[in-house]
Each structure stands twice: as C-alpha cells, then as structure tokens.
C-alpha cells in the first residue's frame, strides 16, 4: 500500500464526510463538542493550505488529555451514550491533526460510520434516516478517494458510491427483514436512553389537561377492523380518578382488585389495532370499554388497561371493545371510594347538590339537573379559561363559569358525590382525526379529555360527559373544530349546523395541506412499522404472513443467504454472460448478416466473413461495393490491430445501418 | 523462437479475491455496529449495519468486474543490447462498456503501474526489464491487481505470461581495431558500380525493381523482400571473423564482433560474418545487421 500524505483534496473529502456524519449530533450534544471537531478539521486544513502551526506529539497528547477532562466534567462519567458519542466526535476531530497514512484516513472514515450510527440512538425519524443515507454516500465516496488514487473526480465518486449503495439496498432489506431479532437488550440500556416523552399525567389538577392540549404531538393511532364508530363514541379510556383532595383528582388506592373484570356487552364488538406512542406512562389507551387484556397489560378493576412498566417504546396491541355495556353491581368499598369528598370545601356546590337530591331523588334526574344547570346558566366552554384559586369547584360553578373539559368533569363529579351518587372522573382522549389516506385514526395529545362516570343501580357505570352539555361541538366535531370555531370568534353551544358547516369549510389550501399532512403521517406510520418498531414481535408477524411460522434461526440464515445470492446473481449475470457479443464490431457484422439473410442470402456456418462476402458480392452484383466495404471494415476491426479503430468502427456501424438488401 | 502476438482474457477462473486489512477492519466495524443495534434494539442501526455489509458484498462484484474480462497482450519487444533495459509493452484493452479504475500491473511483489482504462478503451504499460545476458529474454510474468472501488477487497489474477521474448544482442565491446583476415585483405576501391555479374549483397525491395533480382528464396522463408545487387565487385568487403580474435574468451569475442558489426554498418560497408560452423554472407542494411547480431546473440545457446 502506498502511503500518500494527506493531500489537500483527500483531506477535503474526509472533512466533508466528517461534517455530514457529525451534523445530526449538533442538535443533541453540547455545542463545544461540535466545535472541537470543527476546529480540529479546520486546523489541519490550515496546516495543509496556509502552513499553520503543526502541533507536535506532546501538544496532541496534551489536547487529548484536556478533552478527556472536559468530557468527564460535562458528564461526570466516560461511559454511556452521550459521553461515548462525545469522545468519539472530539477525538476524531483531534485525529485530523495527525492524519498521515492511508490507514489513518480509513480508520477515521470507519469512525464516521460509527458516529452516523450513534445519531440513531437519539432519534429514528424518517428525516434522520434520509440524512444518514446521504452521509453514508459521502463517507463511501471519501473511502473510495482515500484508498484509490484514481482519475475519478468528486462527482463520479459520489455517483459510484450512490449506485453501489442503491444496489446494496435490496440486499440490506432482505437481511434487515429476516435477521433474527431478539427481545430485550444484551447489557441493558444506559439511563439516558429515554427522555423527553409526553403523556397523560397520572392526576388531574386545574390546568394540566389544558397544558396537554397545547401539544399537537400524536398520542396514538388506531386502525379499525371494519367501519369506525362515530366520532362521538370514541371515548379513549386512559385512567380513572377517584380520589379528590379539594383541588386535584388522583387515582384511588384500591387498585389491586380482581384480575378478571367482567361486564355485560350491550352492542356489537369493535375490533381495532392501536399503535401507542411512548409516553413514559403505563396507560394503554382503549376504547370505552375494553373487553380483553393484551399481552403485557394488567386489567384494572376500573376497566382501564395498564402496562407492566412505563411505555418507553412505541407499543402495538389489538383490542376488542364494546361501546354500550352494563357493568353491574358496585361493592361497598368501591361505593365508599366513589362517594369520597373532602369535607370542608365547596360548600355552595354541596348545598346545590343537596337541593337537587331533595328535589329529584333519582340519580338520572339529578345528573340531568346538573347538566341543565350548565346549559341554563351562562357557562362557557373555552380553551383559555381563567385561573382558579383554592376552592376550584365553587369558584368555577358560581364564579368564573368559564372552563375546559377538566373543569366541567371535576365540578360534575363533585356535585354528584355531594348528591350521594357514586361517580368518578375518567381521563383519556376523545375523538381523533380520521386519516383517509391510510384509513386510520390519529389521536393527538390535544384530544385529551376528561369526562365523568356515575353509577346507577341496574345500569352500572354510565358515562356522562358534561362538556357535551356546554359544547356539543367538542363531542361531535372534535377539538380541532372547536379551536377553529373559537378562532373565528363564534360562541360554542348555540350554533346552527349550517353556521358550523360554513365556519368549518376548508379553503383549497387548507384542504391540500391537510391531505399532504395525512400522507406524511401515513409515511411516518409505515416508517415506524418497518424501521423503528420492527422488533421480534413484528418480525414474527411478518414471517408468519410469508408462511414461515416458528422458523428456526438456521433456516432463517439459510433464507437470508439464498435471497442475497439471488440478488447478487442478478447483478453479476449481465457482465458474466454476453461472452460472444462483447465485440461491438462483431455485433454490427451480425446485423449485416441478418439483413442479407432476410434477402435470402444466409451465411453458412462454415463460411468465413471473407468467403461469404465474396459469394454475396457475386450473387448481388448491385450491392457488391457495399458488401465488400462492410466485410473489409469488419475484417480490419476484428482481425486487425488489438485496439479497434474508432473511426472505422463508426463507419462500419453507419454502413450496416444504411445497408438495404 | 517465433514472435506471435497472443492475448489473454482474464476470466472467472483466473481471478481471485480476498479482503484487505481494511476489509477485515471493516468487518470488525460491522460487528461493533451489530452489537450496538442489538443492544439498543434500534431499527435504523440494524439498517445501517446491514447496508454497510451489503455495500461490502456489492463491492465484491465491482472489484471482480474491475479485472474480469480485461484483455492483456504484449507487443514484440525491439532487440536490445545486453546491459540495456528490454521494454516490453503491455496492452490493456477494456472491451466492456464500463471503465476500469486503479488497475495495478504487478511484477512479482512490485507494482509497475496503476492505470485507469476508459470504457472500450485501452492503455499501454511499459514494462522495463534489465537485459543482463545475450540471447532470448522471456517476457516477465505479470499479475493484475486491484482494490477498487473501496479498498476493502483485493482481486488479483493468476500469473499472466506472454509468448514473447526479447532478443538481447551481446554487449558491444569498446571500439576495437578490425583484425583483418590475412588471406583476404580488403581491396580498397571506392565507389560502387551496379550491374556487374558479381553478387555484392542485397538491399530492400523498391517498386520498379526487376522481379528477377528479388531474393525469392528469402521471401519464401518469410523474410522481407530483398533485391539482390550485382556489381563489379569493387565494393569493400569486410569479413568479420571469429578466428581472428584469438586469446579472448567467447563472450568477449562476441562483444568485439558485435562492435565491428555496428561500426561496419555505420560506415555503410559490405560486411560478412564468420563464426565457427556458420557464415553470413557479406551484405549491408538493417536486416543484415540484425541477422549478424542475432547470430552473435544466439551463438552456442540452446535454442
């Protein structure tokens, strides 16, 4: 191997490769780390081009030790994802200063490949995948440059690198799909592997649902088997809150109840598949009420599903739910739990509830009275309610009267409990956006919703959504519609359906934007299914769909090899075959022979070109001149000097093309 | 030994491939990446690992194709004198539609040249070999070698030998006075009158020469057309005679004779060569000089 010193262009190739490889880390790691890398590369360039100071070994080692100290000070460890990537990036930046041999360059490029992989530990988005493809192309072109001193220019190297990668993709897909996946990890993940996830909180305090509703992040996606239920039926049950301390609602203590929860379904089952985004919370959202328990979930007595551990990776599960049900009797403990109220708060609400209790008696009528109260008094549904003080229920009911689903649910449940009706708050999501592009429902964090459940003898738990009394649009049309109506300054609850339709009609731009967004979401979903979430379970499902159930590792490896060989053969055949026709002048001559053969003058197998030419010229005296010219050219090209004469070859092609027998 | 141009086309059976040390390092990189992918259960990391692995596999095809069906031929090497370098010219012909890059011509472990060959193009590589001894110098065996495109794999051909040899004349001695044969002292008559009866030598055929004077026997032997010249015999005729060089060893004698041949030709004299058991009749001209030097070069060598 020759040991070319870092010539300027090779250095530029390497710098470009490093830049694209390191770029995705700029958003994730502290700025100084990227700066160290950039300075190292720029310094080396300065040395090569402007004869800057060239650091000796002592300086380089000192810099390296300083770096180690800096990394340790930043992270207090040298192990784990962040310190690991930091070390890799900064040390390879320093490596620029001592690049000398081809091997140094090659090692640097291999580290760039590792750095590209490192960026996937932060994000696995489609964008990053696309960027990584670009980065790999540039790095591979640089590898070509570093190891092969050829006449290729930069564009040719990039193109060759791109073509080779394009050819590698089918192979990669085969191995990717079939390489046996394991569940779990080899050594366990460092603590910083998960962070920054949003999800439904495990308690309800004034304001925290609204906070969630600011986020347009996707909470989960649902595809239904068969037609999806109407939007107003889509109550996605997350968690049930029973404990009220006068200000906030929390989950009750009695949650370790029976494992087998049953209810009587009253309508057709709905089957659907949920792809739940990681939330760092255990709630597995399910359509009110889920009838089965997916793998890895606990079925709580309050009809919610809870994952064994906080959900940190996208979760897929299939469920069956019934939207009408009878949950039957309530035991005493639960009854007490669902009537609990702190004694010293909301005196006016208590008084009002007691008044209704005396007036109506039956739970259904009391609930109706409460809802009528919301409708009759000037309550307003708004996404930006005023802040509430120490006694939020009374302040809301008799003061501000402006609120959001959480205020209505909390106030309603307080009133019901004060009236002696067991009731509780349910947190979850309502509705969703139907993505017609992929025929699935997108539920966002902004669809977060709180509603109430009251228990009635003979009917069990019955869902009552007080928000529906004030803003039926929220239930019927979804939050997005409410937001847009509010933006136009329209008062909710009193709008005619024509007015709503007019207000919600989409302009062409919004229409296009919305559909583009849906297709984009579908692309993302597909990306998740096949890239980010493609683990053991999905692989098993994929293999089963191919007809390989319970396939052994050995056979899987065989399958991979067979597929890869097949692809390689397809690539290799074009240049392995074509033994005869690779001489273009011969091909041209054969064309000429075919033309003569069509005119009834076929060349005999034993006949050489010369003999055939003479015979043909005798038979067709009219064509003798061109026949002998073509034959002569062909003989010169085929049996003449080793290197074909380009002029003769073009003449031959032209003569054959114009030849008419 | 006849000089026949031959061509070697590198086929699948003539080509071999192994990973380079960078290739092995790359394999190590893939193992590290795979472990990271498995540990983090990271789909994109799996994808990148397999993409790079597939890239290495695809590069096998490219490395193979870079030599596959490369046509090699050598052209005859002009005769040289011992002590000079015989230059064998290697033609690398790329008849395919894809260019070849970084094709190294190796002689033993030594890289002689690294060339790119454009699609349907060719490149010549000169292969200088020191000619140490007179006689036939066989064309050296070469191997083709490439690491293109990524340097992860290298492919090489088996040894390619050509049916070529270079004739190496004896090393001419330092200028030495002519030892004339005592019996045949040169007749110092200047000028030349053509048309006599005495055969005075041959010269190259030129259009217009009488066919009767063509040396048909020589033509039949496959030599160039020569015309016999007849003159009045006043031409100076030198006999360069082995026997006049007594007291020297064989190689020195041949060297001196080679020097005389060159000098005589330079002075445009008629000269003949007498070696034990062989004689070259007096004549003049490049072919004649070659004939004489060739006799000297191959003197007492087993074919």
What do you see in this structure?
The complex is a heterodimer of chains A (about 650) and B (about 300). With about 650 residues, chain A is α+β, with helices and mostly antiparallel strands. Chain A contains 24 helices and 20 strands. In chain A, the strands form six sheets. Chain A has a five-stranded antiparallel sheet, covered by helices on one side. Chain A is elongated and about 125 Å long. The model of chain A is unreliable at about 1-5 (pLDDT under 50). Chain B has about 300 residues and is an alpha+beta fold. Residues about 1-5 and about 180-195 of chain B have low confidence and may be disordered. Classes of the chains: A alpha+beta (about 650), B alpha+beta (about 300). Chains A and B meet through helix 5, helix 6, helix 7, helix 18 and helix 20 of A and helix 1 and helix 2 of B.
Q: Label the overall shape of chain A.
A: elongated
Relevant CATH superfamily of the largest domain in chain B? Immunoglobulins
- Count of spatially separate domains of chain A: 4
Number of E-state strands of chain B: 17
The oligomeric status of these chains comes to: heterodimer
Q: Output the number of helix runs of chain A.
A: 24
Largest sheet of chain A: 5 strands, antiparallel
Gap from first CA to last CA of chain B: 8 Å
Q: How do the helices and strands line up, and which of them pair or pack?
A:
The complex is a heterodimer of chains A (661) and B (303).
Chain A: H1 8-22, H2 31-50, H3 57-75, H4 81-95, H5 102-119, H6 126-147, H7 154-178, E1 203-204, H8 208-213, E2 218-225, E3 235-241, E4 243-244, E5 249-250, E6 264-265, E7 270-276, E8 283-284, E9 286-287, E10 297-299, E11 305-307, E12 315-321, E13 325-326, H9 332-337, H10 347-360, H11 363-376, E14 380-381, H12 392-400, E15 402-403, H13 405-418, E16 423-430, E17 433-435, E18 440-444, E19 448-456, E20 460-464, H14 466-470, H15 472-477, H16 479-487, H17 497-504, H18 508-532, H19 536-546, H20 553-576, H21 584-598, H22 609-619, H23 624-639, H24 646-658
Parallel strand pairs in A: 14-15
Antiparallel strand pairs in A: 1-5, 2-7, 2-18, 3-9, 3-16, 4-5, 6-13, 7-12, 8-11, 10-11, 16-19, 17-18, 19-20
Chain B: E1 7-9, E2 15-19, H1 21-40, H2 43-67, E3 71-75, E4 80-81, E5 85-94, E6 100-107, E7 110-117, E8 121-130, E9 135-138, E10 143-146, E11 153-157, E12 165-169, E13 194-204, H3 216-220, E14 226-231, E15 237-241, H4 250-266, E16 270-275, E17 278-283, H5 286-297
Parallel strand pairs in B: 4-12, 15-16
Antiparallel strand pairs in B: 1-3, 2-11, 3-5, 5-8, 6-7, 6-10, 9-12, 10-11, 13-14, 16-17
Helix pairs in contact in B: 1-2, 4-5
